[in-house]
Amino acid sequence: MTKGFFGNLINGISGNLNQIDPNTAKEHYGKFLIDDEEIQQAFTLIRDVVIFTNIRIIIIDKQGTTGKKMSVKSIFLINIVDCEMETAGAGIDDSEITITYLTNVKRKSNYENTKTHKFEFPKKANIEGLYKWLFSLAYKNRLEINDIA
């Protein structure tokens, strides 16, 4: 076992995502992609995987002792309406990005149903680019939903 393995294990135990190569993610999880969908970034958390594509965020939760059973959840990028970032402090804090997204099918309804999802990253992870991308999506979506775009 190498030092990298222990670092990944400690990050996994503490709930942190570790970045993986998009090509590696496509080899393993390409079966979940639809036509014209491309992986932008991918992260692992011990056995679980989070994939950011040009269409959605795919969250793969491997379950059971073997990990053969899995839950696959999608959050469509067009439904993201807010994004928050918290960087790590001097202590044992980690970095976080929390997104708020619409759960109703019609984005232009008389009411909004929203949920949030928090992603935790290792302390040294550079999450500013991912935050900027998600926040720009939220801004664009808000303009479109409110007929300002």
Automatic annotation (TrEMBL):
Its lineage reads: Bacteria, Bacillati, Bacillota, Tissierellia, Tissierellales
Protein name per UniProt: PH domain-containing protein
Give the organism the record lists: Caloranaerobacter azorensis
What Pfam families is this protein classified in? Answer: bPH_1
For the Bacterial Pleckstrin homology domain, which residue ranges apply? 9-136
Q: Which InterPro entries match?
A: PHb (IPR012544), PHb_sf (IPR037063)
